[in-house]
Amino acid sequence: xxxxxxxxxxxxxxxxxxxxxxxxxxxxxxxxxxxxxxxxxxxxxxxxxxxxxxxxxxxxxxxxxxxxxxxxxxxxxxxxxxxxxxxxxxxxxxxxxxxxxxxxxxxxxxxxxxxxxx
Length: 118
Known about the structure:
Blueprint: E1 6-11, E2 17-22, E3 27-31, E4 46-48, E5 55-60, E6 66-71, E7 75-84, E8 87-97, E9 109-111, E10 115-117
Antiparallel strand pairs: 1-2, 2-3, 3-4, 5-6, 6-7, 7-8, 9-10
C-alpha cells in the first residue's frame, strides 16, 4: 500500500462519507459510520487510483455523491461514489486532461440554478 501526505479532505453533504486526497495519487473514501461505536476501523472503504500525480485539490458536488479531484499532472477527474444500504459499490469516472494549461490548484462546486464546477 503506498502512502503519501493528505492534501485535502471533503465531507459529503449527508455526512455518510468523506474523501481524502493524497500525494500518492489516490483519493480514499471513508465511511463515517465505521469511525464511531463498535464498528471502528482505520481503513478506507474505497480507493480511487486512476488519476496519478499528486492530488492537490478535492471537492464534493452539493446534493450528490460526486467527487472532483485535481492533480498536479494537469488532470481533473469527476467520479461518483455509489453508497446505498451502507454498502459502497464501484466508482464511475470521467476525466478532463488539462496538461497543456498547467497544474490545477483548487476546485469548487457551486449549485444555484445549475451545477457549475470551477
